[in-house]
């Protein structure tokens, strides 16, 4: 009897060990290393936020066509999803999407948003107010830097226009990546940060060695 139990436990252990590990969540392109992000953060200009006057999301045209009939949202859904099937018009008809902010997985594209990591309003108040429409369009549809990612829709709504000093992902394990992406985008677009924003980013980058 004991031998049979031991054999059964070994069989179960082998079965569990044979199961594939869950696939890591896709990351947007251009996420810097921790050391690079810390250096980049130190180089950003610290200044008070500018005025919200004149701001409108319409001044940041999105989602634009990227290739064929596929717009930016559809390209990011394909990039960030698993087994994504698209219609002839590029709409995602099936697949699954993991939201790194809260750890939820969704199987309907209607349940996820494409988040502007650095919100359009935040960009406006930290330098984008003086940009041309073409520059703002490039920022709002950036597939080269870590500015766009697929997340749970109501989590994106809760984030709103907040920066890391006022809003953080519910998964603390994502703080490190979130901060590195934020710093990279601010650097690429020469956007300023506030002193409280810098403090929040510094604390989040200090989480990197723990995960």
UniProtKB/TrEMBL annotation:
<feature type="domain" description="GmrSD restriction endonucleases C-terminal">
    <location>
        <begin position="107"/>
        <end position="202"/>
    </location>
</feature>
<dbReference type="InterPro" id="IPR011089">
    <property type="entry name" value="GmrSD_C"/>
</dbReference>
<feature type="signal peptide">
    <location>
        <begin position="1"/>
        <end position="18"/>
    </location>
</feature>
<protein>
    <recommendedName>
        <fullName>GmrSD restriction endonucleases C-terminal domain-containing protein</fullName>
    </recommendedName>
</protein>
<keyword id="KW-0732">Signal</keyword>
<dbReference type="Pfam" id="PF07510">
    <property type="entry name" value="GmrSD_C"/>
</dbReference>
